[in-house]
Amino acid sequence: MKSSAELEAIREKLKVEIGYSCAIDENDTKVVVRMSDDGLAATREVVKTLMEEIEKRNLAHVKVTQLGSTTKVDGEPVVEVMAPGKEKVAYKNVNAAKAREIIAAIK
User: What pTM, to 2 d.p., does this model score?
Assistant: First the structure.
């Protein structure tokens, strides 16, 4: 993995494969993946798992976005979940198994 652009290309390819829409509505639950350029390899699997779990569970109201940084992000990849009317919840050092748990907890 060489850049955040490569990760974005993978995310776009997955969106097409699973028919994922990324248009975000105010009533959507937002899942933000934060990472630095150094953490792209680990982040790739997390983003893929998040999107697959969302599709598997038919959670069309859950949208995944990515925020990159050129500086190290403490505990990356960090996944933040922002659901309407609820406090933001952040998870550090997320792996594929934890990504599945995060999506399973979303209603």
Answer: 0.74
